């Protein structure tokens, strides 16, 4: 095996082809699709479809936003819908990616521009199994101001001692289109997330992480609810938030209770034949 200009290891013949493609200006990746982990567990695909529908039904995503999960057969692969509105996602729309966010078998399907959010977080957070990126509206004022998003009640204990905020100008400079459209930007976002569950994105939205699809959907829904409650409380005066210890204890308790809202939300969202 050797490493060629496309940064991937190949047997020697493949390296030659890859180098030749680079010389004549063809995209080298087309020569070297990453290997598939094989068919994912059907129940995981079903839950990923449900997660897309739930997030729309609960007002977290609209035409934009996406949710991913690690492949059950290989932690270096993840599953994400093709570029489309989440409420319309079916099992046939789910694609497999490697952690560089290269599609395994695109077959003409387009990918979300911001898929690097998912791959780069999976690279640095082995504990994270599912990721939601959204522009849920109540959260954005906390991304665009000095007021930190904090846990208002026990349900939002996963927010901990406040959500970090990603400033894209620090990486992309002053004239970006605000999107996480490269691995470098995804890596910078993952660094700002650190060990937190939620990272806010100035002028853009937020990204939520968890140990499963059920947990990440729960957290994405309640990040938005928490932001609405905090804005309400700020209008009344100076809120008292959960302290760090309360937030940590509540997070442990609620991590054991996510099946309850999931069953309700899934039944409701999947019963709708169209948005
Ligand atoms: Mn976005």
Explain this structure to me?
It is a single chain. This protein is an alpha+beta fold. It folds into two domains: about 1-30; about 35-270, Class II aldolase/adducin N-terminal domain (L-fuculose-1-phosphate Aldolase), CATH 3.40.225. It is about 40% helix and about 15% strand. The protein has helices at about 10-25, 40-55, 115-125, 140-145, 170, 185-195, 215-235, 245-255, 260-270, and strands at about 1-5, 10, 65-70, 75-80, 95-100, 130-135, 165, 200, 205-210. The strands form two sheets. It has a seven-stranded mixed sheet, with helices on both faces. The protein has a two-stranded antiparallel ribbon with strand order 1-2. Strand 3 (about 65-70) and strand 4 (about 75-80) form a beta hairpin. The longest helix is centred in the C-terminal third of the chain and has 24 residues, at about 215-235. The radius of gyration is 20 Å and the shape is globular. Bound molecules: manganese (II) ion (MN). The site of manganese (II) ion has 5 residues, from loops.
């Amino acid at each position: 095996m050797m490493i060629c200009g496309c940064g991937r290891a190949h047997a020697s013949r493949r390296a030659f082809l890859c180098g030749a493609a680079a010389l004549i200006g063809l995209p080298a990746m087309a020569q070297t699709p990453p290997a598939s982990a094989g068919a994912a567990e059907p129940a995981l695909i079903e839950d990923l479809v449900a997660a897309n529908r739930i997030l729309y039904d609960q007002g977290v995503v609209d035409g934009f936003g996406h949710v991913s999960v690690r492949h059950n057969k290989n932690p270096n692969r993840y599953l994400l819908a093709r570029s489309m509105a989440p409420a319309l996602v079916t099992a046939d729309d789910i694609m497999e990616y490697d952690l560089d966010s290269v599609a395994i078998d695109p077959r003409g399907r387009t990918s979300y521009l911001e898929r690097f959010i998912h791959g780069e977080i999976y690279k640095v957070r082995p504990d994270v199994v599912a990721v939601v990126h959204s522009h849920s509206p109540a959260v954005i004022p906390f991304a665009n101001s000095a007021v930190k998003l904090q846990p208002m009640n026990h349900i939002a204990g996963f927010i901990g001692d406040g959500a970090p905020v990603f400033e894209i100008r620090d990486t992309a400079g002053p004239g970006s289109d605000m999107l996480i459209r490269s691995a470098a930007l995804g890596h910078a976002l993952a660094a700002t997330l650190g060990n937190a569950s939620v990272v806010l994105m100035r002028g853009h939205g937020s990204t939520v992480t968890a140990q499963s699809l059920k947990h990440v959907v729960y957290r994405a829904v309640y990040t938005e609810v928490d932001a609405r409650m905090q804005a309400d409380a700020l209008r009344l005066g100076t809120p008292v938030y959960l302290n760090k210890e309360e937030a940590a204890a509540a997070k442990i308790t609620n991590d054991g209770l996510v099946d309850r809202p999931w069953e309700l939300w899934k039944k409701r969202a999947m019963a709708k034949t169209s948005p």
